[in-house]
Amino acid sequence: MLYFIPTPIGNLEDITIRSLRLLMSVPLIICEDTRVAKKLIKLLKERYGKSENIEQRFIPLHSHNEQEAAQNLNVEDFLTADVVYISDAGMPCISDPGAALVQFAQQNGIAYEVLPGANALLLALAASGFEGTSFYFHGFLPHKKEARVEELRKILLLEFNAVLYESTHRILQLSSEIAELAPQRVIYIIKEATKMYETHYKGSALELAEKLKTVNLNGEWVVVIKGKRQKVGEYLHEEDILPLPLPPKQKAKLLAKMTGKSVKEWYDILIKDNKTPKES
Description:
By secondary structure, this protein is of the alpha/beta class.
């Protein structure tokens, strides 16, 4: 049997009893990073007093070698003993490697099971307090500004809540981009979920963009954007105007009337984002 095991995203105590038993007893562990996996096993043994003298083999399967590594695995290893796959933290296959291994198991008739456990996506969504039975998970946005802004514009038009992951180096950029596109949209941000310095922020995009300029940004971030609720007679917002196929000057005039920015400021923003030739 092949087991996909979610590992703690911060607090070691979030490991389940079944996951712990398997991690301590299987002879083969396929993992995103062998160094991270060996360290985790060592910490779990120290914490929970597990001292079984079992020789364990570790095989790396990460985002750069996922397809090749999966195809080079020995099917017999999965038929003669239990095997585990773990990513560095959280649920495998959710913004983490693992999908190619699921396909490998399906193609070769290998029984497999995904265990429940730690997941930053669901944790942040529940902690946000935003209502709604549907949500959109995007993971990490593109690094290039034009692609990021384009994706954000699409996300901000959604009627249901959206969840993004972001790194230490780009969280300030992300908050500023949301504030520029939809300053009054309510967002929830959690840093270092389940860890010692877990921190929560909730408010308008504009408020949080300013707040994050004053805090320590080190850590892993999850951002939940409240869905755009459509109501009869609801006032237009910036995100309603930005995607419209209007000339920059016309669009800038509309946006200026809705916000505190001048027509020139909006025109410059539109030209910069879309790289549209300036109108004569």
